[in-house]
Structure formats: structure tokens, C-alpha cells
Fold:
Amino acid sequence: MAADGAELSSLSSVMRDLVERVSGVARRYEDTDREDVAFELYEVERALQGAARRLDRITRGL
Structure:
């Protein structure tokens, strides 16, 4: 099961990278006529952060 922990840890890292990338795109839409895109992307960012935290908890519990 150690391999599962390593894989989940890797997935958490990938998710944190996705959070940063999504956030970067969202920032580019702030203060534009498409702030709705920024809002939606920040919602995606929050969901990814929550998922990454859950993966971290699971990984620590293995």
C-alpha cells in the first residue's frame, strides 16, 4: 500500500499545480468585461483546493 500513498501524494502535487494554473488564468480575467469567467474559475480553484486537501488527509492516513 506504500505505492498507493506515493501515487496519491503525486496526485496531490498535480492538483496543487492545477490550482495555481487555474488561478493564473482567472487573474487575467479580473477587471475585464469577462469577470464572469474569473468568478467561475475561482470556483474551480476552490473545488480543486478542497480535493487536494482531501487527498492529503487520505495520504496521511495510509
